[in-house]
Write the structure tokens for this entry.
Amino acid sequence: MLTDDAIPLQGSSNWRSNLDAMDVPEHISTDSTLSTALRMLIEHGRIDEDIGNRMFSHDSLFALTALANMVKQARFGTNVYFNDNLHVNTTNICVLACRFCAFRKGPRHSDAYELSVEEYIHRIEPYSEVINEVHSVGGLHPSWTIEHYEELYRETKSRFPLIHIKSLTAVELKHIAKRSNLSIHESLRRLIAAGLGSLPGGGAEILVDSVRDRICHGKESSQEYLTIHQAAHELGLPTNCTMLFGTVETTAHRIQHMMKLRNQQDISGGFQCFVPYPYLPEFSRLPDAQLASVNEILRVIAISRLMLDNIPHIKAYRMNIGDDVGCLALQCGADDIDGTVGNEEIMHEAGSTTPLDFNAEDLAGLIYQSNSIPVKRNSIYSEFALIPPPIKNDDISLPIAV
Ligand code: SF4
């Protein structure tokens, strides 16, 4: 393994050479699928669809995650990134009804809400001294147009100029643009001028239209998702990308999804981070879902790291996978973990029990438990700060390493 000194705080651009210099354990070097994948990465090649599919049925999760962890170590050493963020959802009213979604409500539902600009600001206020990002998505509101979002972002930036606004999924943008009779480019231009700093990447689900028809009929098509992100990248707006797995897709669909994102990244280059998360079934409407086990969650994290060589960061989304599996994911290829969060509704409505009262110290403690070094970052991965080790507490239990 490389020493921490060999890896800059922001990660290494020479990761393929770093990988080549590493000792390769026997369970990887003697395995034809994994050793081929390793060679492809070292030699600036691409792991192809066939190898990707073989990794999904590989009989050794241990060897697969070890390879992914090697690549993570070659890029980022023991660094694990996080930011101090707050989730504020703008509304749960939505004109669509995706079958996996436990968050949306119809406008007349007793739990339906829509935050006014002032209410939104009030949600941020208690956290404004500690967070550096507000993460905001919501339903497709039947009457809000671009003016509402412009006012929201302008007012937020004028009250909290140092807080980065990461907001709007691709389908929200499509909806706002349509309701406002604007193109996607023009909508983005206006929202950027109002203070929008990046897009979070939600709503990708599985970028295979036959799957989308079954789980989120009426949402943007696979190509529309990619085109909207390309438009953002063309305007210099960084975005993330996601994958919802464990619904009705096959493992081959997951590989197709990753390959579409990888191709898009070759074209437009603005994806910062890939965030795969499993479907939470408790309160939604997909009885035919093929729920993901812990083995599969870690496998998806590992394969993401190996397939997506041109997307720098792979995130463990603790809101979905919980803190224990999140900790394990940091040893299986993930280099980033979201986040302090403060308030989260979408996954908690679907059954998540991940604690919401984490501060930066708690999160740094969790990262230390995975034998990693916590590095606090800003939203666009351009500023970094090492977090010192927590005071030793004998009561903290360590997760089982894979
Ligand atoms: S996932 Fe988004 S678009 Fe689909 S129903 Fe839920 S809030 Fe609406």
The longest strand covers residues 271-278.
